[in-house]
Every structure is written in C-alpha cells, then in structure tokens.
Write a sequence for this structure.
C-alpha cells in the first residue's frame, strides 16, 4: 500500500501546486511541469508493475510474448474485435523486438493523457478545483483500471475526451471519429453512445425519468432484459463475451459500489437548484443516475460493472461541484470529508482484492 500512498501524496501535492500556479501567469511553466510530473508518476506505476499486479496483467504479457515468438503477419491479429489495440501492440512489438515496457508506455500515454486534458479544460472553464478530480481519479480506482483491462481503460479515456471536448460542443463528426478510435480498442464503447445522447435532456425532464422508470422495471424483470443484452453483444461482434457472461454463476458487484455512486447522487439531487444556479450539472447527474442503475444490474451480472466504468468516470468532475452544498466557511472541510470517504472506499476495495492491485510490486530491468 506504500507505493499507492506515495502516488496519492505526490499527485495531490503536484496538483495543488499546479492549481495555485495557474492563477499566477508568471508561474505557468511550473503549472505545466507539475502536470507532466503527475503524468510521469502514473505512467511509471503503470509500466513497471509486476506481472502479479492486476488481475489480467499476466494474460497481456503472455499474449505480447507470444507475438514476439511466433511469425504471424499483422493480418492474423486483425480478424477479431479491438483491432486498433492489436495493431498498436504489433507495431510496438515489431519495432522494439518485443519490449513490453515500450508497449505499456504507449498504452499508458493513450490512457492518461485524455483524462488530464479533460480535467485541465474542465477546471479552467468552470473554475473548479484541479486537485479534487486528480485525487478522485485515483480514489475511484479509475487510475488503476488499466492494470486489469488495458483495452477498455483506453476506450474509457477516449470516450470521456470525445464527450467532453466534442459532444458537449455539438461537434458530432469529431465525436464519432474519436468514438471510432475508442471502439478500435474495446468494442463495448458503443454502449455508452445512447447514454451520451440521453444527457441532452434536462435532469427534470419527464422523458428522462420515464426512461429511468423503464430501466428500473427491467431490473425487476431481469432475465428478459439480460437476454436482450446478450443479443446486442452477439450482434455487435462480441459473441465470445456473450457466451462467457451467459453463465450467471459468475456473480456480481457488492453494495459498496452502489453506495459510492448513490451518495453523490443524493447530495446532487438534494442541492440541485442551489448547484445548478452556479454550474450546469444536469448531464453529470444523468450520468450518475445511469451509473447507479448499471451497478444495480451488476449485482446479478458483473458485466454491467464494465459498462458502468464508461459512466462513473464522470464522477471525478462532478464531485468538485458539491462544494456548493456547504456554507462558505465549511467548504474545505466538507470536501476533505468527501475525499476521505472515497479514500476509504479505495483502500477497502484494494484490500478486498479489487483488480488484483494489492500488494503492489515492481518489475524493473
């Protein structure tokens, strides 16, 4: 846990320095330097993690080594889904002679840079904290999601950037181009598209709540809804995934995941009118509602937790808005309590064995 704590402290301090440096234009170079240092810290842990860190790391390393040993052509790796991921893997493998560190360095860049771009632009446009989203990205375990699912972590980051940078500005051509690239890394990204368009509605829209009601009813009638999802997976080219998750004995997510999404939702709905006078939070609240619904579904089948991963990333830019729930002289204390809550969540999930993150160990040449 020491390595993770060092990453938190380092990221938090650097983010605070960056936040205050940005306010003074003369210190803009320090601002850029701090952001780069945060990126380096995240990449370092990503690239030099041991094969035992991350539930699926060993599988990715085995696949990469197999690519080094055999003599298959590039076309042999592009027959299935996630073609762009395997293309990047093949190119990295070929030009480096099978250097795993270089490959994970490239993947970590594609994973973390879009996240930082969104956090930077959001903090500039809204005036909200830069530090809180950085810490929330770590505390919600999104920072370490790639340790378990390298392909989907990239897809999550690219879809996050696509939505915040292009979809929100109605630049739909650029949005779909980026979603296409995200699809090249993990085809499940297509399931976030309808939810992106759903956020066009107002939070108090009757149409929105009618859709939410239908989803809640479908959670009660889970079996036919699950069969529909299986058909969608099959038609979208995810036959193997459909067959794998058809076995409901795999179980689902625990209540803690639902609570983590439900608490900010309750705060946001409670103080909706107060917060919305200062910030547009409708789209963020819709994301959080959908996140909670997907996590409820995931109690039966944890596949829905995978889909929820595309949604709960928006929590990191919603949480700073909760400062408006507190009086002026208690805002800092209130936000510290919220961050502490998520820190305890992160610790609990790690010790429970989430993503196989704990204990962390290095694999350095």
């Amino acid at each position: 846990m020491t390595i993770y704590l060092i990453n938190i402290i380092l990221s938090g301090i650097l983010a605070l320095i960056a936040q205050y440096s940005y306010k003074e234009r003369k210190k803009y170079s320090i601002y850029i330097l701090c952001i780069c240092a945060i990126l380096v810290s995240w990449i370092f842990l990503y690239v030099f993690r041991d094969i035992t860190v991350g539930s699926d790391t060993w599988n990715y390393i085995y696949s990469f080594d197999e690519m080094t040993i055999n003599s298959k052509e590039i076309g042999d790796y592009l027959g299935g889904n996630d073609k762009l991921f395997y293309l990047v893997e093949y190119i990295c493998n070929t030009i480096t002679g099978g250097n795993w560190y270089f490959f994970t360095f490239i993947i970590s860049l594609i994973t973390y840079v879009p996240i930082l771009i969104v956090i930077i632009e959001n903090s500039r446009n809204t005036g909200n904290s830069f530090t809180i989203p950085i810490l929330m990205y770590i505390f919600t375990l999104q920072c370490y999601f790639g340790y378990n699912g390298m392909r989907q972590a990239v897809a999550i980051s690219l879809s996050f950037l696509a939505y915040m940078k292009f979809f929100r500005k109605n630049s739909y051509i650029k949005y779909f181009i980026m979603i296409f690239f995200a699809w090249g890394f993990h085809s499940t990204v297509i399931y976030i598209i309808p939810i992106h368009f759903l956020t066009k509605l107002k939070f108090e829209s009757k149409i929105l709540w009618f859709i939410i009601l239908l989803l809640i009813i479908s959670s009660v009638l889970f079996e036919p809804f699950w069969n529909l999802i299986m058909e969608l997976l099959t038609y979208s080219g995810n036959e193997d995934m459909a067959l794998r998750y058809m076995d409901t004995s795999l179980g689902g997510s625990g209540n803690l995941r639902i609570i983590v999404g439900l608490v900010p939702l309750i705060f946001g709905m409670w103080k909706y009118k107060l917060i919305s006078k200062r910030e547009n939070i409708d789209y963020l609240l819709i994301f959080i509602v959908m996140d909670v619904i997907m996590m409820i579904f995931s109690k039966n089948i944890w596949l829905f937790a995978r889909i929820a991963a595309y949604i709960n990333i928006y929590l990191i830019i919603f949480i700073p808005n909760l400062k408006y729930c507190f009086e002026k002289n208690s805002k800092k204390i209130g936000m510290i309590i919220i961050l502490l809550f998520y820190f305890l969540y992160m610790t609990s999930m790690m010790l429970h064995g989430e993503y196989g993150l704990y204990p962390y160990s290095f694999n350095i040449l």
Residues 198 and 211 are 9 Å apart (CA to CA). Residues 100-126 form the longest helix (27 residues). The radius of gyration is 20 Å. The chain has a mean pLDDT of 86.
